[in-house]
Design brief:
By secondary structure, this protein is of the alpha/beta class. The protein contains twelve helices and eight strands. A six-stranded parallel beta sheet has the order 3-2-1-6-7-8, sandwiched between helices. Strands 4-5 form a two-stranded antiparallel sheet. The structure holds 2'-O-acetyl adenosine-5-diphosphoribose (OAD).
């Protein structure tokens, strides 16, 4: 019997991919797990050890910016040491085989761009960016990491925050609109390494499918999305995506 980590790919999926002009992908923490970035949920997930409401919302930040910054400085330092993995690389390489590949990510780790993807929509922000909540000035990571406690704006001394979306905050409207457009236009839509429980990101696979996309999930286990997917590929993204790419690229030659 074939081990679950190396599923065969259906002819239907390979043929669709070989002929697809527009592909869109929604990624979550799972695609970066093999790079050493912890996921949020599950046994090893961050939210098992820390409560999101203490660290990832604006009230927590206003109440105790030092605590929230301690956590984000820790994550910035971790993310500066990690590298894109073969899953990120395979998504970047897909750009050579389709007219348009849109990577919509919930991750803030910048690994898609670092892997070479050009069309990345960051729904939840980017940990490498920071801005002053008083005057909006951008503040570099070097500035942030140099300062003790909660960093202050060099221009107005206001509090600086990481440019990430916290619980209870709206997603950046233009990026959300573009993500919906990409989902609606996709011929094949992938949901990769996401538990698909955090909305509105989790509604994108449904939007894509309703508009006619072939919906493919890649995850190490079933999720709430699996029932709705046309295909579920169980295994690690860093294993499945490069093999999938090789399989349909060789088919189209
Ligand atoms: P989760 O931690 O909720 O889910 C990670 C998913 O990745 C799970 O379904 C795992 O089974 C799967 N997974 C783990 N390792 C994998 C691998 N090597 N290959 C493929 N899949 C793997 O992370 P997200 O769905 O990204 O939001 O969470 C969504 C949002 O919740 C995050 O963006 C964050 C969090 O609170 C904010 O901070 C606003």
């Amino acid at each position: 019997m074939r081990p679950p980590s190396s599923p065969a790919f259906s002819d239907n999926l390979l043929t669709r991919l070989a002929g697809a002009g527009r592909v869109a992908v929604l990624t979550g923490a799972g695609i970066s797990a093999e790079s050493g970035v912890p996921t949020f949920r599950g046994d090893e997930g961050i939210w098992k050890k820390f409560r999101p409401e203490e660290l990832a919302n604006v009230n927590a930040f206003m109440r105790n910016p030092e605590l929230v910054w301690e956590w984000y400085k820790h994550r910035k330092t971790l993310m500066a040491t990690v590298q894109p993995n073969p899953g990120h690389a395979a998504l970047a390489a897909m750009e050579s085989h389709h007219a348009q590949v849109t990577v919509i990510t919930q991750n803030i780790d910048d690994l898609h761009r670092r892997a070479g993807s050009h069309n990345v929509l960051e729904l939840h922000g980017n940990i490498n960016r920071n801005y002053c909540i008083a005057c909006g000035t951008s503040v570099s990571n070097e500035d942030i990491l140099r300062q003790e406690a909660a960093p202050r704006c060099p221009a107005c001394r206001g509090l600086v925050r990481p440019d990430v979306v916290w619980f209870g905050e709206l997603l950046p409207v233009d990026i959300w609109d573009e993500s919906v457009r990409a989902a609606e236009r996709a011929e094949v839509f992938f949901a990769i390494g996401t538990s698909a429980v955090v909305h509105p990101a989790a509604s994108l696979p449904g939007i894509a499918k309703k508009a006619g996309a072939y919906l493919v999930e890649v995850n190490i286990e079933d999720t709430e999305l699996s029932w709705h997917a046309d295909e579920v590929l169980i295994g690690k993204a860093g294993d499945i995506l490069p093999r999938l790419l090789n399989s349909y690229v060789s088919l189209s030659h």
